[in-house]
Design a protein that fits this description.
Immunoglobulin-like, 2 domains, 6-stranded mixed β-sheet, DUF3324 domain-containing protein
Length: 265
């Protein structure tokens, strides 16, 4: 391949990346509903194309799970006991969005008469695609970057469910020169929650309250787990007693008491 041809292919690659990056979901990546058996819920996914040319976008459904390592798993229907994938019907699986335009793709959730207590979920994937042009030409470097969105559709039974968060691990680590407390939390209840983890520190010698430090607030689905990170870099070295709390937006609180030694290392 000549240098000019290589530059041509590289140019096409960056054009493709820029086109795909121009697709934006504008009404959020989590759609949550309170439901009861035998009812129908309706929603929309708003998609914007910020590019100067039209863009095709496909939509499809998958089951979804994640863990404290940060890994996400998108799977076909059948592995998640709390999947609502079969309840959801999209009004379109492929749309063409004109340049500098927005479109809405609607969906309908038909809730069965008998549903389990707690939350169920699946995801709708939104993925830009090329125009389909038949070709047998397989020469050259073929590169493609796929930028896709995952929209969680969460349905929670109106009947009361169980809230139960568990602290799986608490570790103090030094990353990028910062003292970070990693708190692994799993959701062993039946309800979807937004969770914030905090730690209140007390000097081990005199009991003085040294302050409260918080993680970012994150969503947490049943049977899944996440790592909540708290920055303790502003704390001086020393020995502390501490209370760790996991708070949900519904005011459910789960606690753990620990001893913590902070060092300069």
């Amino acid at each position: 391949m000549t240098f000019k041809k290589l530059l041509f292919f590289i140019g096409l690659f960056f054009i493709s990346v820029n086109l795909f990056a121009s697709i934006i979901v504008t009404n959020g990546l989590t759609h949550s509903y309170k439901v009861k058996g035998g009812t129908v819920q309706k929603g929309v996914i708003s998609i914007q194309n910020t590019a100067d040319v039209s863009q095709n976008v496909k939509l499809y459904q998958q089951d979804y799970k994640y863990n404290t390592s940060g890994a996400s798993f998108y799977e076909d229907y059948g592995k998640n006991e709390r999947s609502n994938l079969k309840w959801i019907r999209l009004n379109s699986n492929l749309v063409k969005i004109d340049a500098k335009s927005k479109t809405n793709v609607s969906y309908e959730i038909t809730v069965p008469d008998n549903i389990i207590i707690g939350s169920t979920w699946s995801v709708i994937m939104v993925e830009p695609v090329d125009d389909i042009v038949p070709t047998n030409d397989k020469r050259g470097v073929q590169l493609k970057s796929v930028i896709r969105y995952s929209i969680q559709i969460i349905t929670t039974n109106e009947e009361a469910g169980e809230s139960l968060l568990k602290f799986d691990a608490v570790n103090l680590n030094n990353r990028d020169g910062k003292s970070l407390l990693d708190v692994a939390v799993s959701n062993q209840g039946s309800l979807f929650h937004y969770v914030e983890v905090s730690i209140e520190l007390f000097d081990s010698e005199n009991g003085k309250n040294m302050g409260v430090f918080k993680s970012d607030k994150m969503s947490l689905l049943p049977t899944n787990s996440k790592l909540f990170v708290i920055d303790l870099s502003s704390m001086p070295p020393g020995s502390y007693t501490a209370s760790i709390l996991a708070n949900t937006t519904e005011d459910n609180v789960f606690g753990l008491n620990i001893e913590l030694n902070l060092s300069n290392e």
